[in-house]
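Weekly puzzle thread! Below is a chain. First person to post its structure in token form gets bragging rights.
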Amino acid sequence: MELCDYYLKYMNALCEGTLAAPEGIALSGETPEERAMSLQAALKNVSVPDFVRRCARAAGDALPDGLLDGFHEEDFARALFARMALGGAPQPEEPPAPAGEADEPAPDPDAGKHAFEVFCDCLMLDENLIAYLIDVLKANDRAGFYKLSQVTTHLDLDPDEFLYWLAHREDYAETDEERACAVILDACLDRLRAEGQMDVAAALLSGDRMTFDALRCEAPELRQLPVATYVWFEKNYLDRDYPLRFVLRCNGVQFPETLKKEPDMTAAEIYKALGVSGEVLAYGENILETLRPRFAEIDARAEINQAKVLAAMQKNRVNATHFAASTGYGYDDEGRDNLERVYADAFHTEAALVRPQITCGTHALAVALSANLLPGDELLAISGKPYDTLEEVIGIRPSPCSLAEYGVSYRQVDLLDDGSFDLPAIRAAISAKTKLIHIQRSKGYQPRPTLSVAQIGEAIAVCRAVKPDVTIMVDNCYGEFVETVEPSDVGADMIVGSLIKNPGGGLAPIGGYIAGTQKCVDRCAYRLSAPGLGQEVGANLGLMPSLYQGFFLAPNVVSGAVKGAVFTAAVYESLGFRVVPAASEERHDIIQCVELKSPEGMLAFCKGIQSAAPVDSYVDPVPGDMPGYDSQVIMAAGAFVQGSSIELSADGPIRPPYAVYYQGGLTWYHAKLGVLLSLQKMLDAGLVTLP
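Winning reply:
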């Protein structure tokens, strides 16, 4: 027995007079009803556990250990409702089945029933529940209705939908004739109620055959019935639903003729609900009007890139067998191998290595560099110092297992002040030792322009003229599908990137790719796995559907991210902040740099981006230490795939010029919300003033 069982037991015993009133509880009255009234008054100042404890003492009962521990009023009420729905008595426990025997499970009596039918069946078990329902409905107490529906059906039923369903039960009749009969019978009941003949109405609802036959001859409504039989009447009308509907109507409960439809929210209302003020929304909409031509150009490029990816998939005959999972060594993994052919064709290269075993973009770059550089070789970076996380890979900042430890030397040629290649300096820097040339397409954590594919092609041509056999690698992270051509189209031997950035389309949970010449890719595969094994091993671990689907969606996802970046640039440029690139400039990656002038500005901006997230929107980003960075970094990201940079995010190191790097957005509309909320947080913090 549970606490509610003891409670009901003692309540019944006190009302029936079979248990003397315990200490501190005074009862009066001769009848059970009178004693119940006085008991109700007495219990206002006595808690449930205290009441049960006193009654047990009076009855000489020993309560089970722990019965009164951890009392919770709502849980008790829920259990009490359930007991009342079952008639108020504890249910006998089933005896344990004999060892070695397994009884057939009892059929579910509610199987196939509508949830509202189950709800009605439970209510009709106890008049108190019906009375409670009437009070709840008349008071429009939605919380009380949800509590009652949870107790009876374990579902959150809607009171308006329930009343509408109950009011239109005749609509569920099998034929038009039966529906007409139901309407006639309803009219008869309503007349009987109006005339005060409630006893006759109750008899009709109870299924009394004599009452039905008498009324069938006398009542004007029932005389309209077609050749109706008592069997039909009993089958179709004497359901529990109809008596309950009648009882509710008699007690003044209003039934809706139609279900109310919530009025459609305006865009302003939607954004207000999401935390964007009308002032910020209006400012953003005015800027958007100036960007419509740019957005049309972005869409046109996305269409070309989508066709390119689709053509690669069709050429390689992608089919459902390619989505099968593999484990262990991964030998003969056709789905994995075909995906690599798709990447190679889409990027116009001889081969590709696309693997979940490549953990991130930095890992992919490290594999490509270490596979194609030997002791004594020189690595030449011609786009300035690489991204922060590569500094330890190369050995610019000392680290175990860096290229420097293995005897690879490093030099760099900085970009010119305008962010373009210093072509004369590049010519002069290439020497006999130069084995591999590194180009970083994107800006990284530097407020410089992203390099276009055309610029990269020009630099590659200069390098080839000086040393035709030099290997040229482009860090393609954040740049895939932003233009209609890739660095591999203009002479790069390898392009390298991450699957949780552009080409993963937001679906790839991990991975990286290296696409390029067969020779370079082979060496990368040997470095990633082991000499002699190369691409033959590496199970896909069931990730093929996500990798294929993500790559297919990537051109569209990237277009939304680019629109978000352009919008960000236009908004903040209009408020006097330096942005890179400018709103009017062509885009070559998805990253937008905004110099916010202070740590407070970075914090407010990132809070806005975080509050727009579908995941962890309630979290406030704070600066912290991160591996591979020499400054604290603040990061805002509410991503389905943790760390995905094609999902809406913003981050940056807390150091002058206090630049935040905005990127991503699986859809343009999500990116738009993120930008508006970043502006809202800046406005709320007093860091900007809207003109």
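Puzzle host: Confirmed. Bonus trivia for everyone else. The longest helix spans residues 278-315.
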